[in-house]
Amino acid sequence: MKVLHFLLAVLLLTACERHKVYQHNEGMVFGTVYNITYQSNDNLQAEIEAALREVDLEFSMFNDSSTVARINRGETPELSPMYQEVYDLAQYVNHETNGAFDITVAPLVNAWGFGFKHSDMPTQEQVDSLLKIRDMLDFSAIAKGYGCDVVARLLNSHGIKNLMVEIGGEVVVRGENPDGQAWRVGVTKPIEDSLSLDTPLQAVLNITERGMATSGNYRNFYYKDGRMFAHTIDPRTGYPIQHELLSATVVADNCATADAFATAFMVLGLDSARYILSQHKELEAYFIFTSPDNKYNTWASPGLRDMIIANGR
User: Fold this and answer.
1) What's the chain's Rg over C-alpha atoms?
2) In principle, which of 86, 144, 153, 238 could form an S-S bond with 127, CB 3.0–4.6 Å?
3) Buried (b) or exposed (e) across 231-258, using 16+ Cβ within 10 A?
4) HSE on the CB side for 38, CA within 13 Å?
5) Which domains does the chain have, with CATH numbers?
6) pLDDT mean over 239-264
7) What is the pLDDT of residues 108-163, one digit of tens each?
8) Which 3 state secondary structure label does DSSP give 195?
């Protein structure tokens, strides 16, 4: 009889879970758009935005009150557990990628015209000088992914199992979508579209319980003297990258890790990125690159190949 009551209770709970509505919240954060979908009878947008403000208050270079802005001004603010968590992860990825991911690259990003101030192209002497500056921090290549993780944790704390959090293209997914299936997330074709007016997909992935981030140079670049200068700066040389890799998508247990490794892979290029992947079985990746005849090619790690449900459109 107790077993019967238990089974009935499980069935009732499952039925109640299926009848919960899906909420959808959207807005602006970190200078980009967020879209969050989750199964709950309660709309939690106020709590979500409060959590995102906490992330902004730690890592925004554009918020004069943020921890990062204060450090960059030479102040010594008390460091929160949130700050320390992200800083430690950034240092870990830096070590694992032989310096390809570096949160002290801000002066070089600015010098090449991609940061919070714009300037003329730097000379070799200026690049060499800026390479020595390691006390100015920039978490922009990891903060969006971490923001996704923070919101996912918040929703989990409310007992929400089915959710998708997307901030500026970085994504965390848990459970099922409103159709009762794994979430489907698109990988954008790396076309030169700085205004994001056209976003055809290279592939669609079927994923859940993971974080996913994509890094690419096809939306933030400029031309000068017939050459394209992309926003990804190699922190080891001080120069914008110039190689065949156009886009790196990484799937990891959390979005901050995926975000950081995706940036590092764009710096490393195809062969070195694949080598790093071979050392990190917890990561999956999807690369879009150009062949010698200037055509798009793709490469996916074995685990990610099983996630692909559609190729292009």
Assistant:
1) 21
2) 238
3) bbbbbeebebbeeebbbbbbbbebbbbb
4) 29
5) 22-311 (3.10.520.10)
6) 92
7) 666 656 555 555 676 777 656 666 677 799 999 999 999 999 999 999 999 999 99
8) coil
